[in-house]
Amino acid sequence: MTDHPYVGMWVTKDGRIRHQLLANNRYDEARGERESAYQGRYQVTDNYIEYWDDTGFTADGEFIDGVLYHAGMVLYRKE
């Protein structure tokens, strides 16, 4: 998974929401000043991503043309 093109940091245009997709299929989401607001595991199948938060909720998203669309948010790859 370390070579997967989606591993890394994804952020909203304003930088408020930050998703760190880790190589071990875990994620860490920061919101504003709150680091590690949400954590859990994820799975990518083709361009589709599913999230299972450690608190029990689930979410999904899709990568389209290098942009992550997730739960009404638009996140861009941070270089």
Task: Lay out the secondary structure.
Layout: E1 8-12, E2 17-21, E3 26-31, E4 34-45, E5 48-53, E6 58-64, E7 67-70, E8 73-77
Antiparallel strand pairs: 1-2, 1-8, 2-3, 3-4, 4-5, 5-6, 6-7, 7-8
Protein name: Agrobacterium tumefaciens protein Atu4866
InterPro entries: Atu4866-like_sf, Uncharacterised_Atu4866
Radius of gyration: 11 Å
* Portion of residues within helices: under 10%
Terminal Cα span: 18 Å
Q: What is the CATH C-level name?
A: Mainly Beta
The chain-level structural class is mainly beta
Low-confidence stretches: none
Fraction in beta strands: over 45%
Pattern of helices and strands: EEEEEEEE
CATH topology: Lipocalin
Look at the structure and name the CATH superfamily: Uncharacterised protein family Atu4866
Number of helices: 0
Work out the count of structural domains. 1
Mean pLDDT: 94
Strands of the widest sheet, in order across it, are 1-2-3-4-5-6-7-8
Number of strands: 8
Shape: globular
Q: What kind of sheet is the major sheet?
A: 8 strands, antiparallel, barrel
- Name the CATH architecture: Beta Barrel
Pfam families: Atu4866 (PF11512)
Protein name: Agrobacterium tumefaciens protein Atu4866
Organism: Halomonas campaniensis
